[in-house]
Recover the amino acids of this structure.
């Protein structure tokens, strides 16, 4: 089904899927570099696209690839795609993207819970990931604006740089992409490669029951589109 809907990349190819759904517009990339590296790559690619024209993205990733999602239409030509995946000015753009992305904020969430700034479990209740991120995100933004030298804030950025900015791996990943032929496909439903990444992104914001219902709706929509094509 992957080949039918999009493409199965060869070892000499790098696949990027541009998928339009009722929810919005999605770009899926498959570097196969692991979740931590993909978080850096997602922030970098989102930053580079936003330099081409104003647009904001939500990001999701797993060990196999990452997603950039926007409710606005994504205008990205083959040439522009190759530019945003370029090896040139790599680490400079990575540092800029981290300063403008959610990576440090997400890292701050864990630090806020450990330090007691955010309480994860109240008696009889437990905050989900979305609520935790919202609570810690407010504290993160206040500290960034009013106390930028705060030690917990510094710790968040330090952990991002030390744990996720594996410069050697990033450079190798982008060199491999630049040596590959970039397959850029346009699809109107989730593909077998993109589906697990999308499920991971939904898992961050939905309860287990709501997640199952959402997955079932997505599968039903895909089946209906497949039936119409026949």
């Amino acid at each position: 089904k992957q080949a039918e809907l999009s493409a199965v990349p060869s070892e000499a190819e790098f696949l990027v899927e541009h998928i339009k759904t009722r929810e919005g517009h999605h770009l899926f990339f498959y570097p196969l570099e692991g979740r931590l590296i993909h978080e850096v790559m997602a922030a970098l690619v989102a930053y580079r696209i936003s330099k081409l024209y104003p647009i904001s993205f939500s990001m999701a990733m797993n060990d196999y690839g990452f997603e950039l999602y926007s409710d606005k239409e994504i205008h990205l030509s083959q040439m522009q795609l190759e530019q945003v995946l370029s090896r040139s000015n790599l680490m400079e753009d990575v540092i800029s993207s981290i300063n403008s992305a959610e990576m440090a904020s997400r890292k701050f969430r864990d630090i806020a819970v450990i330090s007691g700034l955010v309480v994860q479990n109240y008696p009889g209740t437990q905050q989900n990931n979305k609520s935790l991120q919202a609570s810690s995100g407010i504290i993160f933004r206040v500290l960034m604006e009013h106390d930028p030298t705060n030690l917990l804030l510094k710790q968040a950025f330090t952990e991002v740089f030390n744990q996720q900015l594996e410069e050697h791996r990033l450079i190798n990943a982008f060199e491999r992409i630049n040596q590959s032929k970039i397959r850029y496909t346009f699809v109107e439903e989730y593909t077998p490669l993109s589906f697990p990444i999308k499920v991971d992104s939904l898992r961050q914001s939905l309860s287990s029951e709501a997640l199952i219902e959402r997955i079932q709706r997505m599968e039903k929509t895909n089946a209906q589109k497949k039936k119409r094509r026949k």
About this structure: Strands lie at 13-20, 25-29, 58-61, 66-70, 121-122, 125-126, 181-187. The chain has one domain: 9-229. Residues 9-229 form one domain. The mean pLDDT is 84.
